[in-house]
Amino acid sequence: MNAIELRNLTKKYPLFSVDQISLDVKQGYITGLIGPNGVGKSTLIKMILGIVRPDSGSVKILGNDMPAHEVDIKQRIAIVSDDCFYYEHLTISDTKKMIAPFYKKWNDKKFNNYLEQFELSPKKKIADLSKGMKIKFALAVALSHAAELLIMDEPTSGLDPVFRRELLDLLADMMQDERNTIIFSSHITTDLDRIADYITFINRGKIVFNETKEEVMERYVIVKGDKQLLDSDIRNHFIGLRETAVSFEGLVDDRQEAERLFGGYALLEKPSLEDIMYFTAKGGRIHA
Ligand SMILES: Nc1ncnc2c1ncn2[C@@H]1O[C@H](COP(=O)(O)OP(=O)(O)OP(=O)(O)O)[C@@H](O)[C@H]1O
């Protein structure tokens, strides 16, 4: 079962487009959405949530079509982002009073416990919250209405390392219920290395891959060696290459092919998600 199904989702801005994206986000897992700056991650998330209207294509969330079933869907999902969707002049406490009645499964006791745990004063105005505090507040709201699908846009970027770890633990807790799903966009790929089951890589408005983290790690390989090994034929096998006067380092998306080409003559290493993102952005090739 898929928590989110996107079909041919397209949005054209004057200088950028998200182009015909089709994507299944598996229910019961954490999916990490990665990609360099400005490749369309937020646009994609905003289209999923109905904040940005797609030019064409369809969005299904928890089995229901958006935007036709938006009100029902919004009961069951939560968004965590530092893009604040609340009234800046209200306090946390007033904001809670305004939003809680909307949710059928709202749990006030849980909400107050999270405020305490996250050290958020109910008297603080939304406008006075730091980026990290906004994330914490959005997370307290998300966890207090029993959301089955948590959509997080760059949730860790404004957070200190201590709370980042705490957040990852909270997410792991939420995943104890196997119906729950999280989609999590981040530049901080080490966070995703730690908790994501699936990785969706988006580059220049297109999906590069959507696979389990294990599949990604098995397929891709970093090759390091002497520059003399490179000729134009060999270069074509690389998604991205970094060269010095004497050596090279590059990413190949077929480990067996790399072993056949370089076996014994170059060093083959397991890449990190950051390596995959870096070389893909550098190489600019779409490799499926
Ligand atoms: N309302 C808009 N009008 C015109 N262009 C837009 C609009 N919103 C976003 N864009 C453009 O779309 C592109 C993708 O932006 P988006 O915010 O989706 O990227 P992103 O992958 O989330 O980036 P980042 O990681 O830096 O947050 C950018 O070039 C941005 O300038």
TrEMBL record:
Keywords: ATP-binding, Nucleotide-binding, Transport. This is ABC transporter related protein. GO terms for molecular function: ATP binding; ATP hydrolysis activity. Residues 1-229 form the ABC transporter domain. It comes from the Bacteria. PROSITE patterns: ABC_TRANSPORTER_2. The keyword Transport applies.
